[in-house]
Design a protein that fits this description.
mainly beta; 4-stranded mixed sheet; 4% helix; 5-stranded antiparallel sheet; Immunoglobulin-like; 157 residues
């Protein structure tokens, strides 16, 4: 479950923001040293930690828009991969859980080394995405998750 604003609308164009949820099946991401990821070459694990709509949500005509701020946390498990890439999606669902819109993104981060231990430290990555779609009355929630290939799904489950 994520964080969403529960504010009342501030003006005629402001609307209550939809709920933000994190996909339970796609809530963690793992990275490895090579193209062929395995349990033996994992270098980090990332999670979706938080999400919040910045400055509320607006409706112009029948077009909904808002900036959604996401926080990812990555934990290094080996000292071999400094720069990481996190592919993720943001889906807008109706009250019946029909997908109204889905957008795909990627964000990168760089692990920093601890000066004393020379080991990589936990990494926070913040990413802002614009949510924009039509049919405001059908929108019920926003779901965020990582894009996982078959091998990553097998390792994580």
């Amino acid at each position: 479950m994520g964080c969403g604003t529960t504010q009342s609308p501030r003006s005629a164009n402001d609307v209550i923001c939809p709920s933000v949820l994190f996909s339970s099946d796609h809530g963690r991401y793992i990275g490895g040293d090579s193209q062929q990821i395995s349990i033996d070459n994992l270098t980090f694990e990332a999670t979706i930690n938080n999400a919040i709509f910045l400055d509320g949500c607006q409706l112009e005509g029948d077009n909904f828009s808002s900036n959604l701020s996401l926080l990812f946390i990555a934990q290094p498990s080996s000292a071999s991969q400094e720069i990481i890439n996190l592919p993720f999606y943001v889906a807008v669902l109706s009250y019946n859980n029909d997908i109204l819109d889905i957008q795909y993104y990627s964000t990168t981060g760089r692990f920093q080394k601890n000066i004393e231990t020379q080991e990589f430290e936990e990494l926070e990555i913040r990413e802002n995405v614009l949510i924009s779609n039509k049919n405001e009355e059908k929108r019920a929630k926003v779901v965020i998750g990582f894009m996982l290939d078959k091998k990553r799904m097998e390792i994580l489950n």
